[in-house]
Specification:
The chain has 420 residues and is an alpha/beta fold. The chain has two domains: 5-42 and 202-266 and 360-415, 3-Layer(bba) Sandwich (FAD/NAD(P)-binding domain); 58-114 and 127-196 and 272-356, 2-Layer Sandwich (D-Amino Acid Oxidase, Chain A, domain 2), CATH 3.30.9.10. It is built from twelve helices and 20 strands. It has helices at residues 13-24, 62-69, 84-96, 100-114, 117-126, 145-154, 156-160, 172-178, 200-213, 258-263, 324-337, 383-400; strands spanning 5-9, 28-33, 48-49, 77-79, 133-134, 138-142, 188-192, 196-198, 217-220, 224-229, 235-240, 243-246, 249-252, 272-281, 290-293, 298-302, 307-315, 347-356, 363-366, 373-377. The strands form four sheets. Strands 4, 6, 7, 14, 15, 16, 17 and 18 form an eight-stranded mixed sheet that branches. Strands 9-2-1-13-20-19 form a six-stranded mixed sheet. Helix 1 (13-24) packs parallel to helix 9 (200-213) and helix 1 runs parallel beside helix 12 (383-400). The chain is globular. It starts with a strand and ends in a 20-residue tail after the last helix. It binds flavin-adenine dinucleotide (FAD).
Length: 420
C-alpha cells in the first residue's frame, strides 16, 4: 500500500529533507520535533556541502590516534572516561573499520550518494528554499605537507567517481596568495573547487518555512514518546507529548536520539553521539574559501559578515551541554591558523551531536522487522552534504516500495541485525 500519511520524528536535516521529498511525492507529512527545528546537530555545523571530500569517520590510523588521545580533553577526538564501558562494543567495531579497504568502500558509497548534492540543492533554491549559499570552494590547509598529502590520498576513490579532487599540493607562497586569511604558520594546502557551504541555522529555518508553505505540518515542542502498533504489527500512530498522530508510515530521523526510540520497537541501532561545537567570530580578514585547518582539525566557513568555526568529536553521551573548555580548544586551534583571530568574542556558540554508526555510514532503510517504519539516521559528519540526496532516495523507497541502488550500502541490517 502506498503510504499517504507519513509521520517523521526529528526536525533536523534528515527529517526535513525526507519531509520535503515525501510531500513532493504526494504524501501528507507531519514532522514532530521535541524542541525546535534545527536545534540539534543540523543547526550547529559548518554547513559544508562537500561530496568531493566525503569519507567515513573511521580511517586508517584513527584507531591508533584515538587510543592515544582517548581521554585527553584537549584532543580533537575525545571519549569521556565514563562512556568507555557503555561504548566498548561500538568502539571495537569502529576500530575494526579503521583500515584502508573499509575506508575506500565507505568513501565510494558516500560519494555515490553525495554526487547529486549540488544538483538537488540548486533545485531546492529554485523551488523557493531561500538559502544563504556560498559557492566559494574549499581550502584544506596545514602546517605539514604530509597531512595535506594524506588528505588527498584518502580522496582518491572520489576522483574515480568523477568528483573533482585536486592532485596538486600548493606551497606556501601560492597558498597565501590564494587565501590571505591563513596565518604564516600554514605552509601547505589544496584547493577543492567542488565545494559549497550554507549557513546551517538559516538553511534549517528556510527549509521549515518552505515545508509549511507546502502544507507539511511541523510541530515543534512535540516529543515522540511511543510508536503504537495495530494487531497486524504495523505502526498505526505515533504518540507524542502533543497528542496522537495517525500514520501509514513513520520515519525515525531523530539524530543521536534515534537509538532510544528504535529500542521501543525492539530494534538496536549502534549509533553513538559524536558531539561537536561551533561559534561565529568577526575576523579582520574574511577567508575567501571554506577552510579545513588540518592540525587542529577545525573548519571555518565564511558567512556574510562572520566566520562560523566548528570542530571536535567528543563522545560524552547524549546530552545538550556545552563544554566551554572544548569550545576554547577549537578557538585556540583556529587562532594559530587564521590571521587576526585574537581575542574576539565567540558568538552564537552551539553544540550538536553527530549520529555515528561504527562504520561511519548512514542508515537509510526500512527498520528491520517493521513493514512501515523507516530509518534516516547516522549521517555522521555529512548530514548537510547528503541530506537532500538521502531524503530524496528514501522518499522514493517509501512511496514506491523499491530500494534505490544508491541506498544499498546503507542497509540497517549490515551490523548483523539483532531484534529483541
Ligand atoms: C560541529 C559540527 C560540524 C559539522 N559540520 C558539517 C558540515 O560542514 N557538513 C555536513 O554535511 N555535516 C556536518 N556536520 C554533521 C551534521 O550536522 C549532521 O550529520 C546532521 O546535522 C545530522 O542531522 P540529523 O537530522 O540526523 O540530526 P539532528 O540535527 O540532531 O536532528 C535530530 C532532531 O531530532 C529531534 N528529536 C530527538 N528525539 C526526538 C523525539 N523523541 N521526538 C521528536 N523529536 C526528537 C531533536 O531535537 C533534533 O532536532 C557537522 C556536525 C557538527 C556537530
Amino acid at each position: 500500500m502506498r503510504p499517504t500519511r507519513v509521520v517523521i520524528v526529528g526536525g533536523g536535516v534528515a527529517g526535513l529533507t525526507a519531509a520535503y521529498y515525501l510531500r513532493r511525492g504526494g504524501a501528507e507529512v507531519t514532522v514532530l520535533e521535541r524542541r525546535r527545528v534545527g536545534g540539534g546537530a543540523s543547526g550547529a555545523n559548518a554547513g559544508w556541502i562537500a561530496p568531493a571530500q566525503a569519507g567515513p569517520l573511521p580511517e586508517p590510523g584513527l584507531a591508533a590516534y584515538g587510543a592515544r588521545s582517548l581521554t585527553d580533553r584537549e584532543s580533537a577526538l575525545y571519549v569521556a572516561p565514563t562512556q568507555l564501558p557503555r561504548m566498548a562494543s561500538w568502539l571495537i567495531r569502529f576500530a575494526l573499520r579503521c583500515n584502508a579497504r573499509d575506508h575506500r568502500r565507505g568513501t565510494q558509497a558516500l560519494g555515490q550518494l553525495g554526487r547529486r548534492a549540488f544538483e538537488l540543492v540548486e533545485q531546492l533554491a529554485d523551488d523557493g528554499v531561500e538559502l544563504e549559499l556560498h559557492r566559494l570552494g574549499f581550502v584544506v590547509a596545514g602546517r605539514q605537507r604530509a597531512g595535506v598529502e594524506a588528505f588527498l590520498a584518502g580522496r582518491a576513490p572520489l576522483r574515480e567517481l568523477g568528483l573533482q579532487v585536486p592532485d596538486r599540493v600548493l606551497e606556501a607562497a601560492e597558498l597565501h596568495e590564494l587565501e590571505p586569511a591563513l596565518a604564516d604558520a600554514v605552509t601547505s594546502g589544496v584547493l577543492v573547487e567542488q565545494h559549497w557551504h550554507v549557513h546551517a541555522p538559516q538553511l534549517m529555518a528556510a527549509l521549515a518555512r518552505r515545508l509549511r508553505e507546502q502544507g507539511v505540518v511541523l510541530e515543534e515542542g512535540a516529543e515522540a514518546l511511543d510508536l503504537a502498533r495495530g494487531a497486524d504489527g504495523r505502526v498505526r500512530e505515533v504518540r507524542s507529548s502533543a497528542g496522537a498522530h495517525p500514520a501509514d508510515a513513520v520515519v525515525l530521523a531523530a539524530g543521536a536520539w534515534s537509538p532510544a526510540l528504535a529500542r521501543g520497537l525492539g530494534v538496536r541501532l549502534p549509533v553513538a553521539a559524536g558531539k561537536g561545537y561551533s561559534f561565529e567570530v568577526a575576523l579582520p580578514q574574511q577567508p575567501r574559501h571554506a577552510l579545513l585547518l588540518l592540525e587542529p582539525h577545525v573548519g571555518a566557513s565564511p558567512l556574510r559578515d562572520r566566520v562560523r568555526i566548528a570542530g571536535t568529536m567528543e563522545f560524552s553521551g547524549v546530552g545538550d551541554g556545552i563544554d566551554r573548555r572544548r569550545v576554547e580548544t577549537i578557538a585556540r586551534g583556529a587562532r594559530q591558523m587564521l590571521r587576526g583571530f585574537d581575542a574576539q568574542p565567540l558568538e552564537d556558540v552551539r553544540g550538536g551531536m553527530r549520529p555515528i554508526a561504527p562504520d561511519g555510514l548512514p542508515i537509510v532503510d526500512r527498520a528491520p522487522g517493521h513493514e512501515n517504519v523507516f530509518l534516516a539516521t547516522a549521517y555522521s559528519m555529512l548530514g548537510i552534504t547528503i541530506g537532500a540526496p538521502a531524503g530524496e532516495a528514501l522518499a522514493r523507497m517509501i512511496l514506491s516500495g523499491e530500494r534505490p541502488a544508491e541506498l544499498e550500502p546503507f542497509r540497517a541490517t549490515r551490523f548483523g541485525w539483532r531484534t529483541r
